[in-house]
Design brief:
The relative contact order is 0.28. The protein has one domain: Galactose-binding domain-like (Jelly Rolls, Sandwich), CATH 2.60.120.260. The protein is mainly beta. Strand 6 and strand 7 form a beta hairpin. It is globular and about 40 Å long. The chain is about 10% helix and about 40% strand. The longest helix has 13 residues. Bound molecules: calcium ion. Calcium ion binds next to loops. It comes from Hymenobacter qilianensis. One of its GO terms (molecular function) is hydrolase activity, acting on glycosyl bonds. This is CBM-cenC domain-containing protein. Pfam families: CBM_4_9.
């Protein structure tokens, strides 16, 4: 689990972020398989990761599992990996795509963050999830800063934001954008 200090830093960052993710609805393109850095539907996690109430079978876009946040969990189960392990080749732009689901009017957010080994944040973007009682595909192209180090950590997770009822995330895909 990321440390508390990271979340405090995050909370400060979020107050400074604007809600620009869903201003324009673009057509989400298919991504060639060789450009996909990782993709998951959370189907094979059970038993391989530490017990985490975020992994659930309550709702799923595909298969049986998704991850969630709710009034007791501000942050979902988190994807964490070093840039160098994600790809041996440097990349400047990525596309993050996922399916989100809210159970009450509010806003949760899919977060893509890059942190240093000392937990300081060097990049932060979020994609708002707004659709209630149905699955919505969200996608955003992220231009990464040039100062990144191969040892920096990518973190991807669902943040509760203003949502008070459960919110779900499934079918996450991260790909290199040409
Ligand atoms: Ca799934």
């Amino acid at each position: 689990m990321p440390r508390l200090t990271t979340w405090i830093a995050l909370a400060l960052l979020m107050t400074a972020c604007s809600h620009d993710a869903n201003k324009t609805k673009e057509k989400i393109p298919e991504v060639a398989a060789d450009r996909v850095l990782f993709t998951t539907s959370f189907e094979d996690f059970e038993g391989w990761v530490a017990e985490n109430p975020s992994l659930n079978k309550e709702k799923a876009h595909t298969g049986q599992y998704s991850i969630k946040v709710d009034q007791n969990m501000e942050f979902s189960q988190t994807y964490t990996n070093q840039l160098a392990r994600l790809s041996p080749k440097r990349f400047d732009k990525v596309r993050l795509t996922a399916w989100g689901y809210l159970t009450a009017p509010s806003a949760a957010a899919l977060v893509f963050q890059i942190t240093r080994a000392d937990q300081t944040s060097v990049f932060y973007e979020k994609i708002d999830i707004n659709k209630v009682n149905s699955w919505e595909q969200v996608s955003k192209v992220l231009t990464l800063p040039t100062v990144l180090d191969p040892m920096d950590q990518v973190r991807i997770y669902l943040w509760r934001a203003s949502a008070t009822a459960p919110a779900y995330l499934d079918d996450v895909k991260l790909s290199v954008e040409p």
